[in-house]
Write a structure and sequence with these properties.
72% helix
Amino acid sequence: MSPVDVANELQSNCDLHEFVSSEKNKEKWKKHKNDFQRSVGILFLNRGDYLYKLALSVKLPDVDPADKAAGRQLGVWAVNTALTIYASTSRRNDFFLLHGVTGAWSLLQVCLLRFLLIIK
């Protein structure tokens, strides 16, 4: 599956949404003021196996690990994927999704630096 497919799977999983909504109202989650933090905590503590399965289902690009440019190729893929998810969401200007884009871009910079060091 592509990362966009995984995002669509999560978005369309009504049972998961209902579970998170009901859990968020419990007293133990009230201490988290941020709704996103509450939701992520609930998911990781209660549905971590499902999230892990989805993460393993993501199809990475085919790169040769022996190729010196493999890190750059994966970094570019990560940026393109993060941008695609950010641009295709209905939640405009979402800070957490934008943070994913900037994080992917930062990873690419590290990959490019490593690529330049290998070439020398």
